[in-house]
Amino acid sequence: MNAFLHNFFDWRLIGQVLPDLLTYGLRNTLVLAVASALLGSVIGLVLAVVGLSHRWWLRLPARIYTDLFRGLPAALTILIVGEGVFSAQVSWLTSPYPVAILAMSLMSGAYIGEIFRSGIQSVDKGQGEACRALGLTHGQALRLVVIPQGVRRVLPAMVNQFIAIIKDSSLVYFLGLVTSQRELFRIGQDDAMTTGNLSPLLATGLCYLLLTVPLTHLVNSIDRRLREGSRPAAAADEPSLVDPKEALV
C-alpha cells in the first residue's frame, strides 16, 4: 500500500510538475484542441451538406472520407499525416503544431460531419417545403433555416466531440516536440520517465479533468434545456379553469 501511494501520490513531484502543466502545457493543449475543433467544424459542415446532396458523385467522396477517417486509429492518422507533410520538406514548417492541427481536424471533421448530418436530417421536412413556398432556393433554405436549427439540436454532441479532441491532443507527441511545445500528456510522461514515478502522470490526469469535467456538466445542462425547453410565461400565469369547489369533491 505504501509503495502504491508513493508511486502515484508523491505530492513533492506533483508540486514540481504542476507549474509546467498549468502554464505552457495547458496552453498548448487548448491551442491544439480549439484550432482542431474550429477547422474540423468547417470540414464537418461541408461533409454534412455534400453528404445530403441528391447527386451521388458528391455523396460518394463524402462517404469515403467519413469511413476512412472514422475507421483509422487516431495515432495512425497523426503519424501518416505527419510523415506525409514532413517528407515534403516544407521550408517554413518549423513546428509540428500545424501538422498536428491538420491531422486532428481531418479526424474530427469526419465525426462532426456525421453529427451535423444527423442534426440537419432531424429538422422537419416541412421547414424546407415552407422555404420553397416562400421562394427561397435550396441553398438559401439550408443556410438560413435548416442548418441553424440542426446545429442547435446537436450542441451536446458537439461539446462531447470537443472533449474527445482534447484527449486526442495527447497523441501529438508522436510528431516530436521541443520543451516549449509540449502539451499536458508529454510533460507528465517526460517527468514520469525522469523520476521513475507515476505521480506526474496523475497530475496530468487532474489537469485533463479540470478541462473535461466542466464541459461534461455543460453538455448535461444543454441537453436538459433542449429536452425540457423553456416554460411559456403565459402558461405559468394562466389561471386555473377548474372550479375550486369541484376540485374539493
From TrEMBL:
Major subcellular location class: membrane
Protein keywords: Amino-acid transport, Cell membrane, Membrane, Transmembrane, Transmembrane helix, Transport
Annotated Pfam families: BPD_transp_1
GO biological process: amino acid transport
Residue ranges of the TM segments: 30-52, 72-91, 198-219
GO cellular component terms attached to this protein's record: ATP-binding cassette (ABC) transporter complex
GO molecular function: transmembrane transporter activity
Topology in membrane: Multi-pass membrane protein
Stretches the record annotates as Disordered: 230-249
Localization in the cell: Cell membrane
ABC transmembrane type-1 domain mapped to chain residues: 26-219
Superkingdom of origin: Bacteria
Gene3D superfamilies: MetI-like
InterPro entries: AA_ABC_transptr_permease_3TM (IPR010065), ArtM/GltK/GlnP/TcyL/YhdX-like (IPR043429), MetI-like (IPR000515), MetI-like_sf (IPR035906)
Entry's family note: Belongs to the binding-protein-dependent transport system permease family. HisMQ subfamily.
NCBIfam families reported for this sequence: HEQRo_perm_3TM
Protein name according to UniProt: Amino acid ABC transporter permease
Organism: Streptomyces argyrophylli
